[in-house]
């Protein structure tokens, strides 16, 4: 199988909260849905109406989708989303929600993360002997994104990237991705890499529980740099089959 290097231009980067991290629903249509469809009937959704901006995956489709409109209920019985389904999905296919999100416009920027595994090397009479793991260290994350705006317009429902990172503006009601409520607010960074080839696998890398620590702004080149750490030692990696 031919392999190509990851091109950030072919990646979708999202800042997501912890909304309904454990909630799932299902497709509610005996005939299922075809590749390219952008609306689905659903059941088993949470009691309240699903929020616009919620990310989800559905068994059978090899992409992350984002809800753009909902109807019915509550609970919600129909969702509209983009992009369209990459493949046909069956009735009762499981839908997994991945949090409310805002898409990051990386432009010519970069995104990197550093997994660390400190080790301690023990000696036996001056010679190398046992190797044990030292204290855990959080992942370092760095990204640069395009500076479109810092604050959203009054009445907007979609937060800016900075508001999502700070739990401000339309993101004031966002939930931390960290299940421990007493800890400082955190978000997940989700990177979806869509391959160029028609038959392949979408790769999803999640950097959980990220908290920014440095946020320098540059008016001159219209960019914002962001560095911080995730309260985990490793990223979460997934592959979703993609045939269309």
Give the distance, in angstroms, between the N- and C-terminal Cα atoms: 17 Å
Helix content: under 10%
Radius of gyration: 20 Å
**What strand line-up does the widest sheet have?**
2-3-6-5-4-7
- Overall pLDDT level: 91
List the helices and strands in order: EEEEEEEEEEEHEEEEE
Question: How many strand segments?
Answer: 16
Mind describing the biggest β-sheet? 6 strands, antiparallel, barrel
Low-confidence stretches: none
Number of domains: 2
Net shape: globular
Structural class: mainly beta
SS field, number of helical segments = 1
**Share in β-strands:** 35-45%
SSE map:
Elements: E1 11-16, E2 24-27, E3 39-43, E4 54-58, E5 65-71, E6 78-82, E7 94-104, E8 111-114, E9 119-124, E10 127-133, E11 139-146, H1 161-166, E12 187-193, E13 200-214, E14 217-218, E15 223-230, E16 236-242
Antiparallel strand pairs: 1-7, 1-12, 2-3, 2-7, 3-6, 4-5, 4-7, 5-6, 8-11, 9-10, 11-15, 12-13, 13-15, 13-16, 14-15
């Amino acid at each position: 199988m031919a392999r190509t290097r990851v091109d950030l231009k072919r990646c979708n980067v999202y800042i997501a909260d912890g909304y309904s991290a454990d909630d799932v629903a299902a497709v509610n249509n005996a005939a299922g849905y075809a590749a390219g469809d952008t609306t689905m009937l659903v059941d088993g959704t949470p009691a309240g109406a699903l929020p616009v901006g919620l990310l989800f995956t559905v068994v059978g489709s090899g992409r992350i989708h984002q809800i753009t409109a909902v109807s019915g209920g509550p609970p919600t019985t129909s969702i509209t989303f983009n992009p369209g389904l990459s493949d046909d999905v069956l009735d009762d296919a499981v839908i997994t929600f991945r949090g409310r999100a805002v898409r990051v416009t990386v432009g010519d920027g970069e995104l990197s993360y550093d997994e660390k595994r400190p080790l301690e090397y023990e000696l036996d009479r001056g010679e190398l002997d046992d190797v044990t793991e030292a204290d855990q260290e959080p992942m370092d994350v760095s990204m640069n994104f395009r500076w479109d705006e810092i604050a959203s317009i009054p009445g907007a429902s979609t937060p800016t990237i900075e508001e999502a990172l700070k739990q401000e503006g339309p993101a004031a009601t966002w939930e931390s991705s960290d299940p421990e409520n007493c800890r400082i607010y955190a978000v997940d960074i989700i990177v979806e890499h869509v391959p160029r080839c028609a038959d392949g696998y979408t790769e999803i890398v999640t950097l959980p529980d990220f908290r920014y620590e440095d946020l320098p702004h540059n008016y001159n080149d219209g960019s914002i740099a962001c560095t911080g750490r995730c309260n985990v030692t490793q990223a979460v990696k997934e592959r979703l089959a993609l045939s269309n």
